[in-house]
């Protein structure tokens, strides 16, 4: 069975919010990611998903990530994935989705200043 | 014998087939004929008696069910040979004969006769061909047949998918195609398709996200849109865009399917294909050499991510094998679950190919190996679609017959009839 998905939200400066995702992102847990992170993203201009503790991601997990991307693009929040584990990265690459996400190796690689696509539009 | 059986078949329910066969086969010296049909997972052969809701009751002392692994009937089914049961010294013997519709393996016949010559074997082959045609013709109107060939209930998605997909084996002089899918009784989002039109052979594999009935619906819609577009003459890229459009209309970006769609020009061996977020096909060339074909993936159909669709081309050589697959074949989840892996997958195909085993049997064994590897419980659908390009000529060849597992007698019978 799937391990529980754990989401830890950390507020940062300048409208930044970091969500640490831990556990399996699959059919059983992807709705929770979609629902909860979408809500968090609405109150922030920059959303970072720390994926380092994701142990498995399947097609449903990818679907939730894509839905989140679509949502943040519509609301003007900049979404970044960091520390994506190899299995999840392989899924992103195979599906071509690596081309549509902003992906960084670690939190420190994220540009500090919010010179992203939009501010408070 | 055959003319009478064929004439009678127009108004014959499946339930009357066993008695009609016995009646007509007596004319060529077959005193008894039993029809055994393979279950969906190809584990067992079940006796068609014509009695009861599954047409399999009241077996009158005969075996109701035979294992495909370990029985003579199963061996005949696996290898496509006609074989007699021992002992030889009795007046009559039982012969086991493969039951093939085209090259799709339906089961096996047990024919009881005192005859043992080439003519008798040809009659066996012809009788098997006619019975297979009749069984196939009843398939879409007979619940009894569906019940007989299921050893446990299907889920709804599997019910949809198996009724949509083409047979698990097809061959002519140009191509040998075979497919396998597990878990056969509980599919969710996988589907395969193939079809011929003129010189072109179409191949496609879909893997819809999720493991629920909606995944089955997604795959179903994708296949429907694919066929509909293909039959209107659209190109591969355009077909995938139309699939995407249909999925977005229905599911508003919440459901998607990955897939490979390919067209093989059997005159030239040129393979044209599109990758929509899927594992690229494996090309297996002689001498155990294999590689992934490369083509920049476009986004999965239904996600609407707007990546460009790239049409890729690869020149095949005669004898090249193209293998499309979904990730359930090679992958596993979690550190404690060792994945089957791509190398083990291709090694398995190579080894059995070298042994000369018919391709459908190789795939059956592959799927059982994958199931065993995961202790019978797959966490994802696992699908393989295999296509070997043999050459440009569509006429039947001994090579195609051997790959498909047709008994040699069937090929001789065919040649005999086709000669003017």
UniProtKB/TrEMBL annotation, chain A:
Family annotation (PROSITE patterns): STAS
Residue intervals of the STAS domain: 14-96
One Pfam family, short name: STAS
Stored NCBIfam families: ant_ant_sig
Family that this chain belongs to: Belongs to the anti-sigma-factor antagonist family.
Protein name (database record): Anti-sigma factor antagonist
Protein's organism: Streptomyces pyxinicus
UniProtKB/TrEMBL annotation, chain B:
Residue ranges annotated for the PPM-type phosphatase domain, each copy included: 172-389
SMART domains: PP2C_SIG
Stored InterPro entries: Bact_Sigma-Reg, GAF-like_dom_sf, PPM-type-like_dom_sf, PPM-type_phosphatase-like_dom
UniProt keyword annotations, A-Z: Hydrolase
PANTHER family in the record: STAGE II SPORULATION PROTEIN E, STAGE II SPORULATION PROTEIN E-RELATED
Name of the protein: Serine/threonine-protein phosphatase
């Amino acid at each position: 069975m799937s391990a529980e998905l754990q989401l830890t939200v950390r507020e940062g400066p300048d409208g930044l919010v970091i969500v640490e995702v831990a556990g399996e992102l699959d059919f059983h847990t992807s709705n929770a990611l979609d629902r909860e992170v979408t809500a968090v993203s609405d109150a922030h201009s920059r959303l970072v998903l720390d994926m380092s503790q994701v142990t498995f991601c399947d097609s449903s997990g990818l679907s939730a990530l894509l839905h989140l991307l679509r949502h943040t693009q519509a609301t003007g929040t900049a979404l970044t994935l960091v520390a994506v584990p190899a299995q999840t990265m392989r899924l992103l690459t195979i599906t071509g989705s690596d081309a549509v996400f902003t992906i960084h190796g670690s939190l420190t690689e994220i540009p500090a200043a919010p010179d992203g696509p939009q501010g408070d539009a | 014998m055959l003319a009478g059986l064929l004439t009678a078949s127009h108004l014959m329910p499946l339930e009357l087939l066993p008695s009609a066969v016995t009646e007509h086969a007596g004319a060529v010296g077959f005193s008894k004929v039993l029809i055994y049909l393979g279950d969906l997972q190809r584990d067992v052969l079940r006796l068609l008696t014509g009695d009861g809701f599954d047409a399999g009751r009241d077996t009158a002392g005969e075996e109701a069910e035979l294992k495909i692994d370990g029985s003579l009937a199963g061996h005949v089914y696996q290898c496509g040979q006609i074989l007699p049961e021992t002992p030889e010294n009795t007046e009559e013997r039982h012969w086991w004969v493969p039951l093939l519709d085209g090259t799709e393996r339906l089961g096996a016949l047990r024919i009881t006769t005192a005859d043992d010559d080439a003519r008798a074997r040809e009659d066996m082959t012809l009788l098997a061909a006619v019975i297979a045609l009749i069984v196939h013709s009843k398939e879409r109107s007979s619940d009894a047949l569906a019940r007989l060939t299921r050893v446990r209930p299907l889920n709804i998605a599997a019910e949809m998918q198996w009724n949509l997909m083409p047979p698990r084996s097809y061959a002519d002089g140009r191509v040998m195609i075979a497919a396998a899918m597990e878990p056969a009784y509980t599919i969710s989002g996988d589907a395969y398709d193939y079809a011929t039109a003129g010189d072109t052979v179409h191949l496609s594999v879909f893997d819809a996200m999720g493991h629920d009935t909606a995944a089955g619906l997604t795959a179903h819609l994708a296949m429907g849109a694919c066929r509909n577009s293909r039959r209107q003459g659209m190109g591969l890229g355009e077909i995938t865009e139309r699939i995407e459009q249909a999925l977005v209309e229905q599911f508003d970006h919440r459901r998607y399917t990955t897939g490979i769609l390919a067209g093989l020009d059997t005159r030239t061996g040129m393979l044209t294909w599109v990758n929509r977020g899927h594992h690229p096909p494996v090309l297996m060339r002689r001498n155990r050499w294999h590689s992934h074909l490369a083509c920049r993936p476009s986004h999965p159909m239904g996600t609407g991510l707007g990546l460009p669709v790239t049409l890729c081309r690869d020149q095949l050589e005669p004898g090249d094998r193209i293998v499309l697959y979904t990730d359930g074949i090679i992958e596993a989840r979690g550190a404690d679950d060792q994945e089957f892996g791509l190398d083990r997958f291709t090694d398995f195909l190579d080894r059995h190919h070298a042994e000369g085993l018919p391709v459908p049997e190789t795939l059956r064994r592959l799927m059982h190996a994958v199931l065993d590897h995961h202790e019978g419980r797959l966490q994802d659908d696992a699908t393989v679609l295999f296509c070997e390009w043999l050459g440009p000529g569509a006429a039947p060849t001994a090579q195609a017959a051997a790959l498909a597992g047709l008994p040699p007698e069937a090929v001789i019978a065919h040649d005999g009839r086709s000669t003017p």
